[in-house]
Each structure stands twice: as C-alpha cells, then as structure tokens.
Amino acid sequence: MKRSTWSMSFWEHDGPEGLAPADQVLLAEARDAAGRAYAPYSRFHVGAALRLADGQVVTGNNQENASFPAGICAERTALHAAMSARPEGLVETIAVVVPDAAGDRPVSPCGICRQALLEQEHRQGKPLRVLLGTNSGQVLELASARALLPLSFDASFLKP
Predict the structure, then answer these.
(1) How far is it, in rounded angstroms, from Cα 2 to Cα 11?
(2) Which residues have CB under 8 Å from 116's CB, separation 6+?
(3) What structural domains and CATH numbers belong to the chain?
(4) What are 65-121's pLDDT values in tens digits?
(5) Which of 50, 108, 54, 121 has its CA nearest to residue 81?
(6) Which of 148, 139, 159, 140 is nearest to 119 (CA)?
(7) End-to-end CA distance of the chain, in Å?
(8) DSSP one-letter code for 158
(9) Which residues are catalytic?
(10) What share of the chain is helix, strand, coil (3-state, %, to 5)?
C-alpha cells in the first residue's frame, strides 16, 4: 500500500483592494449578478462573472426551479453562456460571490460546477483562475480550477 497526499495552494486577500483593478471589477460584476439571481426557494443568491482572454466579461447567476435538480448554478450559467456565444473563447478568470452567505468566508463552487470549470480548463488547454469573494471582505485566489477538484473525472477515463 502507498499513501499519497495532495496539497492545495491559494492566496488569501483581506479584501478586493489588494487585487488588480480588473479583478476588482470582476468581483463587483459577480456581486451585481447575484442581485439578479432567481432563488425563491433557497434564498441563496450567487453571482459569477468571467473574463475572456479578449477582456469580455460574461455574468451569470443561479436560477432555481421548483423541481430542484432543474435549476442551474451561477458558475455554469456564466460559463455556458460564454461558450455558447464564443466556443473558442478562453476563460482567464472567474469570480464567484455570495453576498449574503453566513459567516465571512467565501463560498466555494459545488461539485458539478467544479467539474464544469475543470472541463473548461481542459478544453482550452490553459489554467482558469478562480476568485472566491464575499460581499466586502476576504477573497481567495486560486491559480487553476484544478485546485478545486484534485481527483477529477476527465476524458482519459472514456473509451475512444
């Protein structure tokens, strides 16, 4: 038997002020998108904003449905909107903000969204940077979506 260990590396910022101006704007766009979320059941409003390599910003928010599995998270809303319009687009960074989360820690994407972000990273052949923010405080910065899902499922498991 062999024991293996994975480690995760990320940056913790006390607030958005220490980030580049473009990242501050992306977090603000994600916060604004959360305000447009449709979350009548959970009341858990999530906003996402991603920046493509050409500078275009695409936002998304969670959209709930009374049939709970039929809803979609903010991260996938933004990602799928961007890729539907620009299939060859490169996503440089995604920011995710939950303004009314309990506590002061940023909220991490769910498992399905982690998988979708990692699939995009594979698709584009370049890291997809992730910013997880709060309404006004701490921001976590990950250099790659891979850090969110170390034991991921990918196309290498599928038969050709």
Answers:
(1) 30
(2) 75, 76, 79
(3) 11-146 (3.40.140.10)
(4) 999 889 999 999 999 999 999 999 999 999 999 998 888 899 999 999 999 999 999
(5) 50
(6) 148
(7) 31
(8) S
(9) 75
(10) 35, 20, 45
Give CA separation, 89 vs 27, 61, 82, in Å.
20, 20, 8
Its pTM stands at: 0.94
Angstrom distance (rounded) from CA 58 to CA 126:
18
Cα–Cα distance, 75 to 139 (Å, whole number): 17
| Owner of token pair 């709060």 | 134
Please report the beta strands in 10-160, taking only residues with DSSP state E, as ranges in sequence order. Answer: 11-13, 47-52, 57-61, 91-97, 129-133, 139-142
Q: Which two tokens stand for residue 152?
A: 């991921």
